[in-house]
């Protein structure tokens, strides 16, 4: 029976695990927990191919507990009951270490069926998920578990796994295959931090090699676009649009274009357009008000053109916003105003601002509205905010030249 190479050569010790130095390196918290032998309930969170299942297996081998594995995509309550029935029998003398893969697919009832047994220690739960556990795992399970994040493996670390796979496959051949320069590096760089994907690429290249050599061209073909990690409904989407927005705000055009490229490579044209439009008002704002119509024109062009041509006006918009002066004064002003409203402040209207329909209907005084254009400088002092907020200040001029010019103008008028 065929067994994938990635499964066949899984590490058997923490020292062999590729990546995850932040939790498995010398002094890492997870390493210290495993070496202590006192295994708590844990949730491993991270993308595919980063070692979650491998580490769970290593932990099971280092304890006196019986390992049981379930995949939440196919398992149900009956499978959980079967494990529960084994408790306190000769089948599980030291208790059960349950590795539950893709726990996010278990509903609330299925997750809660484990509570009693992980509470009293008869079941030690190690669950893994590729989605944010704080959104997908119920609080009762989270409160009894420690969450460890597994990160995409750095390309330099993946190279060692790729080389190990190459050496194993060559050892099985009568005539080892030669690799052109750059093959290992290309496979490691293109896997997107997914070690399993890299090893699968090696296996495919060996099975299809001709002439005794694995060429760089073949490696490029196998790995093209494979480094993309993106889920329009998951963390990858929100991380990417957040990174784009913060790069624009941080005035880094290179980073902004990078995250734009990631969104467009994944086909997420709408996500990119929304963030760019928002940044024009939120981060550039009154420091360069012309950015809004310019960016709107770029977005309209992109939506009309579609991909791949849409990348051109969107790149122009990103670079413009990243290099433009910044001001969030409008954003701060509207946030302050909304905060007052949500706090219950600001009812009614100043009498001067009410519609003329209110005149002559029993009010103590007539409207008395002063028309600013009848006064010098087209301005006259009168109350515009409701009485409760008449002294409120929401907008503060920022220090860019556009707003400072407006400030000087109105200071002169309002003398």
Which residues form runs of ≥5 with pLDDT under 50?
none
- Note the main sheet: 5 strands, parallel
Radius of gyration, taken over Cα atoms and rounded to an integer in Å: 31 Å
* Distance between the amino and carboxyl termini: 89 Å
Q: Helix count, per DSSP?
A: 20
Roughly what fraction of the amino acids lie in strands? 5-15%
Secondary structure category: alpha/beta
Overall 3D form: flat
Helix fraction, binned, reads: 40-55%
H/E element sequence: HHHEHEHEHHEHHEHEHHEHHHHHHHH
Order of adjacent strands in the largest pleated sheet: 2-3-4-1-5
Total strands: 7
Average the pLDDT over all residues and give the rounded result.
85
Please explain how this structure is put together.
- The chain has 415 residues and is an alpha/beta fold.
- 48% of the residues lie in helices and 7% in strands.
- The chain contains 20 helices and seven strands.
- Strands 2-3-4-1-5 form a five-stranded parallel β-sheet, with helices on both faces. Strands 6-7 form a two-stranded parallel ribbon.
- α10 runs parallel beside α12, α16 packs antiparallel against α17 and α17 runs antiparallel to α18.
- The chain is flat, with a radius of gyration of 31 Å.
- The relative contact order is 0.07.
- The mean pLDDT is 85.
Draw up the topology in text:
Elements: H1 5-8, H2 21-24, H3 29-36, E1 42-45, H4 52-61, E2 66-71, H5 77-86, E3 96-101, H6 108-112, H7 115-119, E4 123-129, H8 133-136, H9 139-142, E5 146-149, H10 155-171, E6 178-179, H11 183-190, H12 195-208, E7 213-214, H13 216-223, H14 235-249, H15 253-265, H16 269-284, H17 291-305, H18 311-323, H19 329-342, H20 401-413
Parallel strand pairs: 1-4, 1-5, 2-3, 3-4, 6-7
